[in-house]
From TrEMBL:
GO terms for molecular function: DNA-binding transcription factor activity; transition metal ion binding. It comes from the Bacteria. This is Uncharacterized protein. SMART domains: HTH_DTXR (SM00529). InterPro entries: Iron_dep_repressor, WH-like_DNA-bd_sf.
């Protein structure tokens, strides 16, 4: 069962953060939150004991520095959780109530996942009117952070009725998009792939080099161990579908070479496609 006092303390913290000092009296808070005055008073006393609320002036209590930091964290969580639940079809009243539980009890890792999902929904809404755009537009609209997206690497030409490139198995899934100050980078991690040689022996190969097409020429991707990365701005996006069926489909042409044992396999061309 949820701890009603913990939920009330959370609501009080956010109220002190967002409301004017004149509105943060026991009487006015009780009216705003729909709680009994004695419950609000108990909640404020508890916040004071935890060092989150300065009650040295009984008529004008205020958040401490630590209290403001924690209130800001939970206020941001609430906004993210409400938006996410509404997008998933939850009614506004239920979304606000359930967002309180999510904000209070979910781990930071879970909230990073929720925040990432909410950001995907937001970016789709922001770009809903653009049928095509490049990766630079995407990154200018995304908040700074690290995002994980599914991807598929297609063959340049269909072979044996198969259009998925062997390189699709040559990288760990999903890929990572890192956005910082309106600039994005797609990062991939190469992994070994085992295949049978013509004589029936097992052969292990691994992608050793990667090039991306920037619109004029193929450029070498940055390489650091098994990680390879290229600028997200070279992706060309098409906006497909509407509402919850909307998909942002981004692609770029790649050239890859693989090492197999002591040898090196010839360079091949494929189409990298990311789905948002």
């Amino acid at each position: 069962m949820p701890d009603n006092m913990e939920i009330l303390k959370l609501r009080l913290l956010i109220s002190f953060l967002k409301m004017s000092p004149e509105s943060c009296t026991v009487t006015k808070l009780a009216k705003t939150l729909g709680e009994e005055k004695y419950s609000v008073s108990r909640g404020m006393i508890a916040l004071g004991k935890e060092g989150l609320l300065d009650r040295s002036s009984p008529r004008h209590p205020e958040l401490t520095v630590r209290g403001k930091a924690i209130a800001g964290k939970y206020a941001e969580r609430m906004d993210v959780a409400v938006n996410h639940l509404i997008y998933e079809g939850v009614g506004i009243t239920e979304a606000r109530q359930d967002a309180t539980y999510l904000s209070l009890y979910c781990s930071d890792e879970t909230f990073r996942a929720i925040r990432g999902m909410e950001e995907r929904c937001r970016i789709k809404y922001e770009l809903r009117g653009r049928r095509s755009f490049d990766g630079m537009v995407l990154c200018r609209n995304l908040r700074d952070g690290s995002y994980q997206f599914p991807f598929i690497i297609y063959r340049e030409n269909v072979k044996d009725k198969q259009n998925i490139s062997m390189a699709n198995e040559g990288f760990a899934h999903p890929c990572e998009l890192i956005v910082k100050k309106d600039t994005g980078t797609i990062r991939l991690r190469a992994v070994p792939v085992t295949r049978s040689s013509p004589d029936g022996k097992s052969m292990q190969a691994k992608i050793s080099s990667l090039k991306y097409y920037d619109g004029q020429k193929f450029c070498d991707a940055e390489k650091n161990g098994d990680f390879m990365q290229f600028p997200a701005q070279v992706l060309n996006f098409v906006n497909i579908g509407d509402d919850q069926g909307q998909v942002l489909h981004g692609s770029v042409c790649l050239k890859m070479a693989s090492s197999a044992g002591p040898g090196r396999m010839p360079e091949s061309t494929a189409i990298f496609t990311v789905l948002i």
